[in-house]
Amino acid sequence: MWFRNLLVYRLTQNVPFDPETLETALAAKPARPCASQELSTYGFVAPFGKGEDAPLVHASQGFLLIATRKEERILPGSVVKDALKEKIDEIEAEQMRKVYKKERDQIKDEIIQAFLPRAFIRKSGTFAAIDAERGLILVNSASPKKAEDLLSTLREAIGSLPVRPLTVKIAPSATLTEWVKAQKAADDFFVLDECELRDTHEDGGTVRCKRQDLTSDEIQQHLEAGKQVTQLALAWQDKLSFVLDDKTVIKRLRFEELLQDQAEQDGGDDALAQQDASFLLMMMTFREFLPALFEALGGEEIPQGI
Prior knowledge:
Elements: E1 7-11, H1 19-27, E2 40-45, E3 58-60, E4 63-74, H2 77-95, H3 101-115, E5 120-131, E6 136-139, H4 144-158, E7 163-165, H5 172-182, E8 189-198, E9 206-210, H6 217-224, E10 228-236, E11 240-245, E12 250-255, H7 257-267, H8 271-296
């Protein structure tokens, strides 16, 4: 139970997240299989455990964990396109007339409806942790679209969710660029061996470096030429490593073995207890890490009126 990516959202008002009340609300929007003519479904599932009795909200020392599942029918566009062309060619040949847009769209819809029951189904899940005391919702995803799907469904379930992406006062790319130029990050943060450099001009290029000494002359020359660091691999203390981009998206989050071993010891032999121990230790680590990260990036930006 370790998040691999992180999008951070700030609650702009106090929301009393009571586990039992939230459990009831999420139960009104459960995940379910796609019906034969449905393209997709989306709803809440148990973050831990299986079966109908598994709770939809996992609570641990004030932290809450929820999860969603999306099911979607995969219908390749090329299959629909080929079937549509075949049908149109048949009509035009037999009836000696041209098929125009309105009829074409109708035929396409009919083809999709006919193919849907035979389409493959793909399942995907998203986890989110709620730290109500700190006013944060943490989504285990690097995709704002996936995060918004979860947050909007949560909003529908509980009636209101005043939340916005957490932003910082200084453009992250400016801070990351300065760290690479100075060859030193903020206290407790360490620059690793991967970055992305982007030219600020409209038609400028992008340079991606992996397993590269970022103190080298080559990298410094790119910076002197005006390129900005838009993605940088970092480590924090001896607890985790990650890649941060210029939109403050945290990717490829990796907790060091020391933390994982501690969670394994805390959880004992029971699988659910180990998951709970991992979740709790992860959240306690985030309580230290996130304020330090956002302070290093210039401090959290609070929009006027909030």
